[in-house]
Amino acid sequence: MVNYRINAQKVFFDTHGKFPSVSLDLTPVLPPADSPRTMPKRITDTTLRDGAQDPRFALFPVEARLRYFDLLHELDNGTGIIESLEVFIYQKRDVWCLEKLLERGYQYPQVTTWTRATPKDIKTLLEVSGGAVKETGMLASASDHHIFDKLGFRSKEEAADKYLAPILTAWEHGIRPRVHLEDATKADIGGWVIPFMQRVLDETGGAARFRVCDTMGHGLPDPGAPLPYGIPRLMAILAQETGAELEFHGHNDFGLATANSLAAWRYGAKRVNTAFAGLGERTGNTSLEQMLAHYIRLYGDPGFKLELLMELKGLIEREVVPISDKSPIIGDVFGTQAGIHQSGLERQGKAEGGLIYLPFGPELLGRESEEHSRIGSLSGMDGIVSVLNRQVRKLTGQDGKYTIASKVAKYVYDHVQDAYDGRYDEASGRWVDYRTSFFGPEDVLALARQYEAGRGA
After folding, report:
1. Residues 85 and 49 reside in one and the same domain
2. Could you tell me if 126 and 215 lie in one domain?
3. Is 372 found in the same domain as 295?
4. Is residue 18 part of a domain?
């Protein structure tokens, strides 16, 4: 293993406010071999720390934090895959919350904290946790942008010295330091990140862990992408040149947080850091629920209680902030209004090959009664028939008998389309009086009843 030296020169990746350009013509990097430093894969949670910094809400209430922890514990279900939960320690509410979290005595997720790069923060942690917290995140801004422009250090050597002091304070008091390499995807990798990591590992006897942060979401998951943007190359080189246990912390500014997290797992990270529903600064962090789904796809389901995801969603929406219906996994992933999709949904129950237009069965999340079809301007007969039969079953407990060949369904279809057509006003040369909202199940059944009563002929 080569000993790297800190580069005295400043290295900036200034895009002048434009999208960072990247060349992908390098030879693709290869993933490292599996080892105890890369396996087994683990997921960590920062919903109550970085997720709570989401600019859409001012406060994550303490009672909601405790309930979140309880549900996260139930979701993990003793697997230990959701390994830890990260929290602040600075305000009175934070200290009270930390005490209550520790009182629960859960093995998983473990409670970890986040501190700034000062010995004072470590002393505060020791005071408030009474030694119960065994690991803490410690900020070590890695890019020259941060070292010089944000923090005002005179040199990269000075930054390394200042960061090292609290790291050693933590280690001397029995707390494992987890060093957060902030803005690593804009950093001088060979000229600061690697020599700093090597020094930390030497001073802590190899005990320190490192969180590699794609703070601005500039990372790319392509194995041919160069440093510092290329997540495969970055993780593989850090693993190779330091032998450290690595964790990846992704942001979603370019929509690649989950893809980059998967690449980080593949190329040397043992852990990926997440927040529920992607909460966090700007466009947010890597989503917990997405990484759980991909963990199952890659490594099998260890026994997660996935139905708890919907309880977590409900908690966040009630107490913190609304969650988009378009969110993967926990959003309205089963709904459709397009006729061709509705036809596929109606037929897939008897399909030899299984699901046709659903990504996975709603029963995985405890959503067996999910209504898939929404009746809008692009809906077809299959969707209308599905809604009619479900509504009859809901009201009477008996199966509906409507089919796409029935005149009732045709009447409802024509009425729906007429409503969305509206009328063309010759005087203004515009379409007017058209409907813009969905027809609810009650609306659809009312139209059917209207025809059957002889008033719609």
Report:
1. yes
2. yes
3. no
4. no
Range of the structural domain that residue 430 is part of: 339-452
Instruction: Indicate if 299 and 429 belong to the same structural domain.
Output: no
Residue that terminates a domain, selected from 319, 347, 379: 319
Rounded to two decimals, the pTM is 0.91
Which of 319, 350, 369 corresponds to the end of one domain? 319
Q: Provide the number of structural domains found in the chain.
A: 2
Do 292 and 245 sit in the same domain of this protein?
A: yes
**Does some domain include residue 356?**
yes
| Tens-level pLDDT at each residue, the chain (457 residues) | 799 999 999 999 999 999 999 999 789 999 999 999 999 999 999 999 999 999 999 999 999 999 999 999 999 999 999 999 999 998 999 999 999 999 999 999 999 999 877 888 888 898 888 889 999 999 999 999 999 999 999 999 999 999 999 999 999 999 999 999 999 999 999 999 999 999 999 999 999 999 999 999 999 999 999 999 999 999 999 999 999 999 999 999 999 999 999 999 999 999 999 999 999 999 999 999 999 999 999 999 999 999 999 999 999 999 999 999 999 999 987 766 554 444 545 555 666 777 766 788 888 998 865 556 678 898 888 888 888 888 898 899 888 888 989 999 999 999 999 999 999 999 999 999 999 999 988 999 999 999 999 864 4
Tell me: do 250 and 369 sit in the same domain.
no
Q: How does strand 430-432 pair with strand 423-425?
A: antiparallel
Indicate which CATH number applies to the domain containing 63: 3.20.20.70
Do the domain assignments include residue 251?
yes
Q: Is residue 172 part of a domain?
A: yes
